[in-house]
Specification:
With 228 residues, the protein is α+β, with helices and mostly antiparallel strands. It has one domain. The chain is 43% helix and 37% strand. The strands form 3 sheets. Strands 3-2-7-8-10 form a 5-stranded mixed sheet, covered by helices on one side. A hairpin with a 2-residue loop joins β2 and β3.
Length: 228
């Protein structure tokens, strides 16, 4: 018997090689197909995970700056609910001085009161109102209520003039009314001085300096319903 020739051995190995190549190609195509099929889900999952990371970063920043955890929303769904350890956040204070004068003449007799008041005005935010952060793939949108004058602390009241008329005398009610007018004047002066606008700009700078994300940060302020 003659041994098999080298040529016949080579011819015998080709079908095996072709089958192996076909098998490898089929496995490769199956893997590629499965990866392509699951790509949208994997991409969406990675995107949500990234937004959640950004949301936690924004939350921590608000807690650091305002002791407030805002309501964080991802894809119009609430991710974190709002919590706050403070009712108000004062970010700016300023000394305000006002004067008011009452002059009243009756039957030729004039009485006059002139007062000077010094107040410490504080501007900031009412944290009981809605504070919302919405996360988008290309933007962080935060909404806060407009800043307000949170309070006035009376530091001093000076009587610059206290003059009674001969029969037109200054009453206790006159003095009480004039004293009550001073805080209203101080509040109005604080608003006109731009304290609320400055408080909003101050908070925006503080947040922008601490929020580190690869997307635009947009902070807007909105009016809140008046309390009855």
């Amino acid at each position: 018997m003659n041994p098999p020739s080298i040529d016949s051995g080579r011819k015998f190995s080709w079908p095996v090689a072709v089958t192996l190549i076909a098998l490898i190609a089929a496995v490769t195509l199956t893997i590629i197909f499965l990866r392509l099929e699951s790509w949208p889900a994997r991409t969406a999952k990675q995107s949500i995970s990234e937004l959640e990371r950004v949301g936690r970063n924004v939350r921590d920043t608000f807690v650091e700056v305002a002791q407030l955890q805002p309501r964080v929303m991802i894809n119009n769904r609430v991710y974190l609910e709002k919590t706050s350890t403070m009712a108000q956040l004062a970010v700016l204070s300023r000394q305000i001085e006002v004067e008011h004068e009452l002059t009243h003449t009756w039957a030729g007799s004039t009485k006059r009161i002139k007062l000077h008041g010094t107040f410490l005005a504080k501007a900031g935010f009412d944290l009981q109102n809605d504070v919302v952060v919405e996360l988008h793939p290309d933007e962080i949108a935060a909404r806060l209520p407009h800043a307000t004058i949170l309070g006035l602390e009376q530091k001093a009241v000076d009587v610059l003039a206290f003059e009674n008329g001969f029969w037109n005398r200054i009453s206790a009610a006159d003095l009480e009314n004039e004293l009550a007018t001073l805080p209203d004047l101080a509040r109005q002066k604080a608003i006109e001085s731009g304290m609320t606008n400055e408080a909003e700009a101050t908070l925006q700078r503080q947040l922008e300096a601490r929020i580190h994300a690869d997307r635009r940060f947009n902070l807007s302020f909105q009016d809140t319903p008046s309390k009855q």
